[in-house]
Design a protein that fits this description.
With 271 residues, this protein is α+β, with helices and mostly antiparallel strands. It contains seven helices and nine strands.
């Protein structure tokens, strides 16, 4: 299939494709109070690379809701740790099966894979510290299982290339689409479910969702109803039970951009 990312974008962006075999361990966590959160974040800052194949990690602290379709209590943190090939068994034992610190509760643990053409960073990504006005948007998305292939095609052919333009124009920090490969643990109280997580740094001031942002990025309107038609097709196969704004409590994932530096369309290094 032809690469949908224009050649002009490939030198300034890093795109991590599934064949590069980057996987993430996602942990949804709730801490009981601010003091416990601060202690948890301090420990996380001191252990950003756990396991020999660890590329880096980020810990996001819940800051506010953009949309909450299920009206359930909100957890305090989402942690994403990135690995080459697989998450080591000893990491799963320590971070999923071991008892968490007092006051900290693990609500969900999962293995996530990158979505085709839709995990995009600027080649000089070093975190969002240069843009204090931005917050990390995290969408928890549930795609109907029979439509997962259709959803991936929409992401690869339309959403991913448009997001790449937004990243290049610095209108957003990154666009990182991940899909759940396996749920390792789910707390009995968890009433929210998803099989996709999208991470993107945006300015929440006046933010009305991605429709307005993507309107400029699509350029020539796609067929079948233009931009509105694209989102109508997405909405017909997915729901977004929760959408949050977050602060980056720990951000040690700059190696993701180094991993893909100088990569061509498929994410492999050029000779």
């Amino acid at each position: 299939m032809p690469d949908p990312l224009p050649p002009s974008l490939r030198s300034t962006l890093v795109r991590i494709e599934p064949d590069l075999r980057v996987v993430a361990l996602g942990r949804t966590i709730h801490s009981r109070d601010d003091v416990t959160s601060a202690e948890f974040e301090k420990r996380a800052a001191g252990s950003t690379h756990v396991g020999e194949t660890c590329i880096g990690s980020a810990l996001y602290r819940h800051q506010g809701l953009f949309n909450d379709a299920v009206q359930r209590p909100v957890w305090s943190h989402l942690e994403l740790s990135y690995y080459r090939d697989a998450v080591p068994a000893e990491v799963i034992a320590a971070r999923v099966h071991a008892r968490p610190p007092t006051g900290v509760e693990l609500l969900r643990a999962e293995i996530l894979l990158t979505t085709p053409a839709s995990f995009i960073l600027p080649s000089d990504w070093r975190g969002s510290g240069e843009h204090p006005e931005r917050r990390t948007s995290i969408e928890y998305i549930h795609v109907q299982p029979p439509h997962l292939r259709q959803y991936r095609d929409l992401m690869r052919e339309l959403i991913g290339p448009a997001a790449a333009k937004l990243v290049q124009e610095r209108k957003i920090g990154t666009f990182r689409a991940l899909e759940t490969a396996a749920v390792l643990y789910r707390h009995p109280s968890m009433a929210v479910d998803w099989n996709q997580i999208h991470v993107c740094e945006v300015n929440p001031q006046g933010f009305e969702g991605f429709g307005r942002l993507f309107e400029s990025a699509f350029g020539e309107a796609p067929r079948d109803g233009g931009l509105a038609g694209v989102f109508t097709r997405l909405d017909s196969v997915r729901t977004i039970p929760r959408w949050t704004f977050n602060d980056a409590a720990v951000e040690a994932d700059g190696a993701l951009a180094q991993l893909g530096s100088g990569c061509g369309p498929s994410g492999r290094s050029r000779p």
